[in-house]
Please model this.
Amino acid sequence: MTALKDAKVPFYKNMMLITDFNCGVANAQIELRFQNVFLYTTQELAKGKLADIDSRLKPASWIKDHIYRERPFVPTSIHNVPFGNIDFAAYANYTCYRALGSNTRPNIFIHITDPGVGFGKDRSILVTDEHNVFIGPNNGSLGLMAKYFESRSIGYTLHKIDIPFIEHIERMRTGSPTYILPHTFHGRDLFAVVAGLIAGGVHPSSLALDEDEKILEPAYAQNISRLPANVGEKAHFQVFRDNTAGNIKTSFSVDQKSFDRIVAEGAKYHISKPNGARIQLPFLKRQMTFPAKNVFADMKAGEPLLYLGSTFAINWDERFVELAINMGNAGQSLDVSPLHGAEMLIERIQ
Model:
C-alpha cells in the first residue's frame, strides 16, 4: 500500500452505486440522499460556508469555477447483488471499475453490500493515486480491487471514516443539534453523505481518522490461480454463483491463446467437493464432466461446459473461467449457495 501522489481533489465524472437492495424504496432513498447532499455540498462549498463549520471542509479550487454546469456529473446504479455474498460484491466492484476503462476524469464508487454495512468500525474510503474513490464497508468487497491495484503498481490509501465528524456535519446541515447517525442504514446516512462531500470538492482524508486500516479480502480474491493444464492434475479453487443464469464464476485466470489450446486438445474436467466427493448430474446419477468449450452453442441444451468468460482478470490479457450448463443452472446443479462462495476441487481427465 502506498500513499497518494498528491493531495489534489479532482472533478469526478461518474458516481457508481452498487448495492444488494432489491426494493425500489431502499434504492430510491440512497440515490435521493446522495443527490440532496451533493447539491447542498456543491452549493455551500462554493460559497465557502462549510469551511466555516470546520477548516477540514475547505473546497477544491475548481468548485468556484462552477465546473458542474459545464461538465455534468453522471450517476449510475446497479442493485440486486446477492445479499451476504462478499465474493460477488468484490466482483461487482471490480468489474464496474474495469468497465469504465481509462477515463479522462476519475470516479466515485459507493458499495453497499452486507454483511457489515450497519454500525461498526470498518467504515472506509479507498482512494487510488489515479484519484478514483471507493466508499463503503471494509468487509471484503474491496479485496479484488486491491489485488488489481497492486498488480498494476497503482498506489492506494485506505481511510477510516470519522463518523463523529460526519454526524457533526449532518447536525449543521439538517439543523438538528441532537442528530445521531442511525446504526442500520449507513448506505444512505453515511456513505452517501461522504460521497456527496467528496464529489463537492472535500479531500477524502479530511473526512477520515488518522488510522491505518488493512483491506480485507474474500476467499475468491485470495485464490486466483491457473486452470490445470495436464491430464491428472488437480487443484482447489473458489467459486461463487451468478444468479442471473446460474453460471459459476471461478477463480481461474487464463489468457485466450492458452484456453484455445486447451479447447483444441479436447480437455475435459471433473468437479468435486473439497473432500473429493463427486457431484452428480440430477436425475442421471452420473458424475458431471465439463468439456472446455469456447461458446455455449458448442453444447446441447442441458449439457455442462467450462468456458472463458468475458470478465478481464487481474493479470494482463487474461479472463476468468466460468462453469455453466447450456440452458440450465450450474449453480443449482453443483449445489453452490447464492448467498456465499465455496471451495471446489477440479481434475483434468482428458
User: Anything to note?
Assistant: Residues 24-47 form the longest helix (24 residues). Confidence is low (pLDDT under 50) at residues 1-6.
